[in-house]
Amino acid sequence: MIRCEGYRKYGSFMTLGPREWKQCKNEAVVVLKVRQEEISEFPACMECWREAVERKMEILEVMPLELKTDR
Asked: Domain containing 47: what range?
């Protein structure tokens, strides 16, 4: 199993708790190639992939994980 490398922020000034980033606990199903500050690839689950699309991240390529590991 390859774990998703997506991260989520928990806590904020509204909840009066400390803000912290936690890694997604889901199993990755695809590898996303994205351009943020630089181009990078990372394993992602369906939920994090959907969030990337909703947040209009620049997704350059999506490859099913089983194809990526066969290379």
From this structure: 7-70
